[in-house]
Design a protein that fits this description.
There is one protein chain. The chain has helices at about 30-35, 50-60, 70-80, 90-100, 105-115, and strands spanning about 10, 40-45, 65-70, 85-90, 105. It is of the alpha/beta class and about 120 residues long. The chain has one domain: HAD superfamily/HAD-like (Rossmann fold), CATH 3.40.50.1000. The chain has a five-stranded parallel sheet, sandwiched between helices. Bound molecules: magnesium ion.
Length: about 120
């Protein structure tokens, strides 16, 4: 598949997604909408690959990638994209995003912007 031109968005789980423990502010619907808008999506979490895959299964979403937190750079090697974004809730997320040359979006900043309904969806990420 030709991935050129598709923004790649990596989601942390715990504290970031509603399916996390603790639950975060982003819904499965938001992730699905991100994917449907043309982005490559997946998770990058402290959880095992098996646990992350089970979470996606339960949410009815087929992710493009699933990696453990310190392997975000492997996603960059697998997909050619004009833009790599990681969304998370802690400084650990920010650290690994920086290490893998991903933009980092703090989930609470994103959640605040989601409260402004006038913004077109494409502008959220
Ligand atoms: Mg987290």
């Amino acid at each position: 598949m030709d991935n050129q031109g598709r923004t790649l968005v990596s989601f942390d789980i715990d504290g970031t997604l509603e399916m996390g423990d603790p639950p975060g502010p982003l819904s499965a619907g938001f992730v699905l909408r991100t994917q449907q808008s043309g982005c490559l999506i997946g998770s990058c979490s402290d959880r095992t690959i098996r646990e992350q895959s089970a979470m996606w299964d339960a949410a009815g979403i087929v992710p493009d990638f699933v990696v453990v937190k310190n392997q975000l750079d492997s996603v960059r090697e697998r997909f050619t994209s004009p833009r790599y974004v990681h969304i998370g809730d802690t400084h650990v997320d920010a650290h690994f995003a920086k290490q893998a040359s991903f933009e980092f979006i703090f989930v609470l900043d994103l959640a605040r912007r989601l409260d402004s309904p006038c913004e077109p969806f494409e502008d959220f990420i």
